[in-house]
Amino acid sequence: MTGRTRDREVVAAAVIQGRRLLLAQRTRPPELAGLWELPGGKVEPGESPADAVHRELLEELGVEVTVGERIGADVPLRDGLVLRAYRAELIRGTPRALDHAALCWVDARELREIALVGNDRGWLPDLVTLLGG
Ligand code: C5P
């Protein structure tokens, strides 16, 4: 590292199977509980974003994925965090809600109607396109 200030990255995964996207329902904080998101979390120091997607989905969903290309635009969060979405493909396991209230698979029409967390809403057009919607 050069010591220069860099945004710390939060990763989120777009897991798509066929024409459906996997969403996870948050349990916390109270203002976000019940809303749906692309699963993910903070990149740890020394970890690549792809490694973080892999780790987070193992921890949160109990699955292994391969991580693909970035999708959508960066979302600036508080405290120098930046949220980025990546495609991910399931290679092992069936997703379970280990850290969320529930999981669901949505098609393009359902995605447009579901209550997403605000930070993830900007990705809607990109996600709808990926779902062939
Ligand atoms: O899930 P976790 O609390 O580790 O996420 C870190 C931050 O990223 C939180 O502020 C969370 O709201 C945000 N986040 C988000 N959209 C996602 C995943 C995380 O806004 N799909």
TrEMBL record:
One of its GO terms (molecular function) is 8-oxo-dGDP phosphatase activity. GO terms for biological process: DNA repair; DNA replication. The keyword Oxidoreductase does not apply. Belongs to the Nudix hydrolase family. Signal peptide: none annotated. It comes from the Bacteria. PROSITE patterns: NUDIX, NUDIX_BOX. Its cofactor is Mg(2+). Residues 6-129 form the Nudix hydrolase domain. Keywords: DNA damage, DNA repair, DNA replication, Hydrolase, Magnesium, Metal-binding, Mutator protein. This is 8-oxo-dGTP diphosphatase. It catalyses: 8-oxo-dGTP + H2O = 8-oxo-dGMP + diphosphate + H(+). Its EC number is 3.6.1.55. It holds the Pfam family NUDIX.
